[in-house]
């Protein structure tokens, strides 16, 4: 396939992806009260083999070819069309995780450290324990984990993937309702931010533990810890130059934004090279960046393009790996149901009880539980990492995607129901 043909294919792929995501989002938001994230997750699955592949298998395979290309030497290489799509999706993911880090408000944690720590601790420990226990039950059954993955590695991965929270969606729902700065909203945001930061650290440890070579694992863990410490104690001071540049230029100029992107790409490469994945480096860099006018203008200049153009590509790429048809026996559907139940009990119920213990009333405690239980985009990231790193099979990937969609779908209607008749009931306009 020539470069010209690859460009033509990419342009058509992007057109189909954007149209599908906008159509599903329009229907989901208008008639089902769902968020963009949920709708784009569903659109991604629909464009994969689970729906598009059933209706028009040849057309779906031509547009999104998954089959490897066989060279004359007999070697197989990934289809270049999909490799390009994957690379573009990862760039979008890196920028988005940087923006999430840029919104990470440490002041919220300081204000509600005790209550947030209690809720977040419950939201990490309970699902991690249940997920790890389930992995031992499922290990060796139905080809859910790749060959060579040890039971302990499987337990660590499944536990970490159960512990994730859709912090971006949680924050957006609270801001849309104008309650982000209330006592209740502050607790939810602080708990969600601590939860996700902890989950990403767990993921870094999990990926490091999967390395067969002890020195590689040591490099990943040591490099990750070193990167975080360097970002916190040295990076914050060094990155303050962006504040001075913003004041000097009367705003974030093209030169300043370009320099930010250069630093972002380098830090993402650095953590990926160390073995703990690029998105971790992007997120930590975002948390170390200056706040105020600089952060607001960087978000204004990058958020819309990232969320409306680049992120949908990641959702669809995840959908192409999701094959509902692989869950084709009563036993596999029972496993899927078990995973969903464990996810809800370990995250939603545990966080609700912890919030109640922290002094919130039952209504607000249940709302926090529903928000923390949503997995959203963050779950898809950790699942794609697991599939790419050879930890889980497409079958378990599909089961976990089903869990992510179910728990995320639940959040909006449950929150709307729980907040009916309260001062939090209507979204701000």
UniProtKB/TrEMBL annotation:
GO terms for molecular function: antiporter activity. Residues 23-420 form the Cation/H+ exchanger transmembrane domain. This is Cation:proton antiporter. Its main location: membrane. It comes from Dendronalium phyllosphericum CENA369. The chain crosses the membrane at residues 6-25, 37-56, 84-104, 116-140, 152-175, 187-210, 216-239, 251-269, 275-292, 304-326, 332-355, 367-387, 399-419. The keyword Transmembrane helix applies. GO terms for biological process: proton transmembrane transport. It is a multi-pass membrane protein. Gene3D superfamilies: 1.20.1530.20. The keyword Chaperone does not apply. The lineage of its organism: Bacteria, Bacillati, Cyanobacteriota, Cyanophyceae, Nostocales. Keywords: Ion transport, Membrane, Transmembrane, Transmembrane helix, Transport. It is found in: Membrane. PANTHER family: CATION/H + ANTIPORTER (PTHR32468), K(+)_H(+) ANTIPORTER 1 (PTHR32468:SF0). One of its GO terms (cellular component) is membrane.
């Amino acid at each position: 396939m020539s470069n010209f043909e690859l460009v033509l294919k990419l342009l058509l792929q992007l057109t189909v992806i954007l149209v599908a995501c906008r159509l599903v989002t329009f229907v989901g938001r208008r008639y089902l009260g769902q968020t963009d994230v949920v709708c784009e997750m569903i659109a991604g699955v629909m464009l994969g083999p689970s729906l598009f592949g059933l209706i028009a298998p040849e057309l779906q395979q031509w547009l999104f070819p998954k089959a490897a290309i066989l060279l004359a030497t007999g070697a197989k290489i990934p289809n270049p069309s999909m490799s390009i799509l994957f690379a573009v999706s990862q760039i979008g993911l890196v920028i988005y995780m940087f923006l999430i880090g840029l919104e990470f408000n440490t002041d919220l944690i300081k204000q509600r450290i005790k209550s947030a720590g209690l809720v977040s601790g419950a939201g990490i420990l309970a699902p991690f324990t249940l997920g790890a226990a389930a992995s031992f039950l499922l290990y060796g059954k139905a080809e859910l984990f790749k060959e060579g993955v040890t039971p302990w590695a499987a337990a660590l991965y499944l536990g970490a993937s159960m512990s994730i929270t859709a912090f971006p969606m949680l924050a957006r729902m609270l801001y849309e309702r104008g309650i982000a700065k209330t006592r209740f909203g502050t607790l939810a945001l602080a708990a969600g931010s601590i939860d996700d930061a902890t989950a990403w650290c767990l993921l870094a440890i999990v990926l490091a533990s999967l390395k067969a070579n002890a020195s590689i694992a040591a490099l990943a863990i040591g490099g990750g810890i070193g990167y975080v410490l360097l970002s916190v104690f040295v990076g914050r001071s060094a990155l303050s130059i962006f504040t001075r540049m913003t004041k000097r230029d009367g705003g974030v100029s093209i030169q300043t934004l370009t320099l930010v992107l250069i630093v972002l790409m380098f830090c993402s490469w650095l953590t990926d090279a160390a073995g703990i994945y690029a998105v971790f480096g992007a997120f930590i860099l975002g948390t170390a960046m200056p706040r105020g006018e600089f952060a607001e203008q960087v978000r204004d200049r990058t958020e819309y393009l990232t969320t409306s153009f680049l992120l949908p590509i990641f959702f669809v790429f995840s959908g192409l790996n999701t094959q509902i048809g692989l869950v084709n026996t009563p036993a596999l559907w029972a496993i899927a149901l078990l995973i969903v139940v464990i996810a809800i009990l370990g995250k939603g119920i545990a966080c609700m009880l912890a919030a109640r213990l922290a002094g919130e009333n039952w209504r607000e405690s249940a709302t926090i539980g529903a928000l923390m239980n949503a997995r959203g985009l963050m779950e898809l990231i950790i699942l794609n990492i697991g599939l790419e790193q050879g930890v889980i099979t497409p079958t378990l990937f599909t089961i976990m995607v089903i869990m992510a969609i179910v728990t995320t779908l639940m959040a909006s209607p449950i929150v709307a129901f729980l907040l009916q008749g309260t001062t939090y009931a209507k979204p701000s306009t």
